[in-house]
Each structure stands twice: as structure tokens, then as C-alpha cells.
Amino acid sequence: LPPDAYEMLRPDTANETIAALRARLAAAAAPDRRDRVELAGLGFAWPNASLVHGLDHTLGYNPLRLLSYHQAVGTGDTVALPDQRVFTALFPSYRSTLADLLGLRFIVTGVPVEAIDPSLRPGDLVPLGRTGDGHLYENPRAFPRVHFAGAAQDADFAAIVRTGTWPDVDLRATVLLEGAATTAATPPARGTARLVRYRNGEVVVAVEADGAGHVVLADPWHAWWEAEIDGRRIPILRANVLFRAVAVPAGRHTVRFVFRPFRGAWRQIAG
């Protein structure tokens, strides 16, 4: 590798880049949003920088990765160099359904992004300018972190991961659920969802809807998470291949997701 592949962050330009990202994230803030970022081809230390500065990085430095997330998104041990960003069938480009579902809003690259993702076409990403470290882009199609879906459709997640082909539905209005009955009210229920609290081990969502549907949280599904609606425990469904959803009735409700690793691990051990 060239000597600068493992270059440490330069405080002057790094602070400029972090400040630019923070400003963009603040400007895009909304009750349903917690936008993700991706930092690629900027040097070895940058994934750690996202952790230090509290950025939700799609390729965040973490030696304990969920296999399902790794296979879908293409996480690797490092993205220091431009050619180390490996895409997958399900995440073939920054212009992809999974990038949108992840809420990947801002991308910073050490070279023009087309050098990392040659499949991009003019207009796929919005150039926002340069900092001392890299090029800043916006994905204007990024989904919010949480939303209400008034319809549901059964889907084969293994086939979607293998082929990269999604069902032809509006994923803002319809949630994909594996092994669940397809529902499509006419017209579908409408509703809103907003983040009330977001912590490492707890996410609280307020939802209001004119009919039954699902609250969809674009955080990775894991068996050790549990959910409650208005204090009553309910199952978490695996949604849209990677994410979480819970069924909610019409009206106003509070949905709470809680990470309980010890109880979850014991439940798995006990079978």
C-alpha cells in the first residue's frame, strides 16, 4: 500500500470535513430522520472518526459484524483506498434501493465518487462541494430512519439478497415481510412515525395512523431486541430484508424497542 494509506487524520482538514457533515445533518434533521453517512477512500482512520464523532456510518469500524448486514451491504475490514469499497448484489451502487432504505444521505469520498462507483450517472447523487479531505455528496432519495407503512407484502429475503432484485412496490407505503400474509387495504392506511428517543439500547417511536399498519425502523434486525406497544410486548418482524417492523393498530401509540442481550442469548440457548 502507498505510505498515505494509513495516514492519521489531519486535525485541520478532518475538522473541516466533520463540521461540513454535521452542518448538513443538522440542516436535514426531522422528527423521523437519523441520516446515515458513508466515508470511503479517505484513509485508514476515518471509520474510527465516525465512531468518535457519533456519525451513523454504514461501514463503521466494528470487528463484530452481523453476517446478514455484511453480506447485504459489503462491509470490509477497511475502506482506506477507493478500490476497497466492495459493492454487493443487493448494494450494487450508491444509487440503489438498499442505499435508500438505509437512509444513506451523505457520502464523503477521497476521490470523485465515480472512481469508486462507476455505475453512477449524472444526477444520481448531488455534489455538495469539497473539503480538505474529500468530496461531499448527497443522496436525495434516502429514506427516514422510521416510517409508517400501511400495506405489507410477503417476500423471499434470501432470493432478494442473492439476486439484488426487489419486488416492484413502493417501499415507503409497503413493508416486505418474510412468511407473512400480504395485506393491501384499499386505500392503504396512512400514518406518521417520529423518533421520541434514540439510544444505543433503546428506541422510542410515536406513531399515529388512521388504520392498521406497521412501524418500520431502518436499524438491523437482531433476535436480542424486543418491542412494546403502549407497554405491551409485541414481536419484532424482520422487514425489508435487514430491518425491523412491528404491527400497530389504528390510533396513537408509543412503540419502544429495547436491546436485551442477556435475555435474548438465554432464549436462544434454551431453544
Description:
With 271 residues, the chain is of the alpha+beta class. 21% of the residues lie in helices and 30% in strands. It is built from seven helices and 15 strands. Strands 8-9-15-11-12 form a five-stranded antiparallel sheet, with no helix packed on it. Strands 1-2-4-3 form a four-stranded mixed sheet. Strands 5-10-14-13 form a four-stranded antiparallel sheet, with no helix packed on it. Strand 8 and strand 9 (202-209) form a beta hairpin.
Regions with little confidence, pLDDT below 50 for 5+ residues: 1-9
- Report the portion of residues in β strands: 25-35%
Shape: globular
Radius of gyration, rounded? 19 Å
Mean pLDDT over all positions:
90
Number of helices, counting only DSSP H or I runs of 4 residues or more:
7
Strands, total number:
15
The amount of helix comes to: 10-25%
Distance between the termini: 47 Å
The SSE order reads HEHHHEHEEEEHEEEEEEEEEH
Largest sheet: 5 strands, antiparallel
Tell me the structural class.
alpha+beta
Provide a quick synopsis of the model:
With 271 residues, the protein is α+β, with helices and mostly antiparallel strands. 21% of the residues lie in helices and 30% in strands. The strands form 4 sheets. A 5-stranded antiparallel β-sheet has the order 8-9-15-11-12, with no helix packed on it.
